[in-house]
Amino acid sequence: MVLERVQQMAAHLTGQVTHHPFDPLSAKEIERAVAIVNQEYEGVFFNAVTLSEPRKAEMLAWLTSPAAVSRPHRVADVVAIGRGSKVYDGLVDLDQGIILSWECTDGVQPLVRQQRRCD
Asked: Labelling 8: which of 22, 25, 52, 63 has CA 20 to 30 A away?
């Protein structure tokens, strides 16, 4: 455990960060997810970009044998707002740089609240 933490700190200092599959998305990963979506879908506003955690079976396989099983991909869960206040939900594979899913969620209101001016 101590050795793993020292390795993490060294990686952060050298800029060669390898994220644990459950680490929150970094600022660079969020920027990458936004860029990937913007290549495919123009004119959307981003409401939330968060980590989509790997499936339990995938994590258990990797934890059991990290040398033999590849690390789970980093996937961003993206919620975006398009024209007409349509809400889109998608998954973006940050390792492969592709959109895994993208769908309009009919009947869902965006989480953005309009600000009121207090004059």
From this structure: 52
